[in-house]
Amino acid sequence: MSHRAGFVNIIGNPNVGKSTLMNAFVGERLSIITSKAQTTRHRILGIVNGEDFQVVLSDTPGIIKPAYQLQESMMDFVKSAFDDADVLLYLVELGEKELKDEGFFKKITHTEIPVLLLINKIDKGDEQKLVEAVQLWEEKVPNAEVFAISALENFGVSQVFQRIVELLPESPPFYPKDQLTDKPERFFVNETIREKILLHYKKEIPYAVEIDTEEFLEDEKIIRIRSVIMVERETQKGIIIGHKGSALKRVGVEARKDLEKFFGKQIHLELYVKVNKNWRSNEKQLRRFGYNN
Q: Do 266 and 260 contact (CB within 8 A), yes or no?
C-alpha cells in the first residue's frame, strides 16, 4: 500500500479561525484561541496520522503589517509557510474581501502549490452572502479550489481533510506515527498561560507579555511547573498581579485546569511576574523565546 505524507500550511488574516481549524483537524487543542488579534505568535505543527497517510499541519500567525521586531519575527513564520508547503490552505472569513498584505496575495495567486481556499464562519451568514463570497474568491484566486466551512461547528472540515490527503505526494512519514506536534511540553504550558492573559487583560498588556517556563518536573501522578510571566514595565507587573494577587491567582487557577486536561495529570503551577524591558524589540530576547530562529 502506498503512503502519502506532506506539509499543509494554514495562512490568512488575524481572527479568521486558523487555530480553530487546526484543532478541528488534529482533534486536540494545540493552538490557543481567543478573539484578540495576534493570538498565534509561533508556527505550530499538528500531526494527523492515518494508516496510509501523515498530514503535517502548520498554524501560522495572522498576516499583519509589522510594527516592531516581534511582529517582524511573526511574519517570518508566515513567509516560511511557502517554503515547504505541499498544500496551502488560505482561510478567509465570510464577508472578507482581501488579504492585508498585497505581496502575500500575489504569492498565493501565482504559486504552483495546490491552494484550497476555505470560506470560514459560514454559520454567521445566509445563503446569498455565501454565494456572493464563493463567486468573489473564485474570481480573485482562480488557481484555488473553494470550500465553505465552519471550523467551530465542524461543518465541511472532513471534506477538506479528505481533499488534503488526496493532494499529498507519495512519501514515508516525516514524524513518528504516535507524535502529535513538534513542540515540547513547556511550549504548551507557556501558551496556556498566555491564553488566560489574552482573555482577562485589556489594551497593550497581553501583547507585552511572554511566558518562560523555568521548571517542568514530571512524576507518575503530578507535574510541578514554575513559570515566569515577563512584562516590559513595572506598571504592567502591577496590573498582571492585581489587588492582593487576585488577578494572577485567576490566571493560575484557569491555566492549571486546562493543563490538567491537556496532560491528564494533576498539576502544581507556580507563577511569578518579572520585568524584562523592551523584550519585543530585543533580538537576543526574541531568540531566547523561540523567535528569530
A: yes
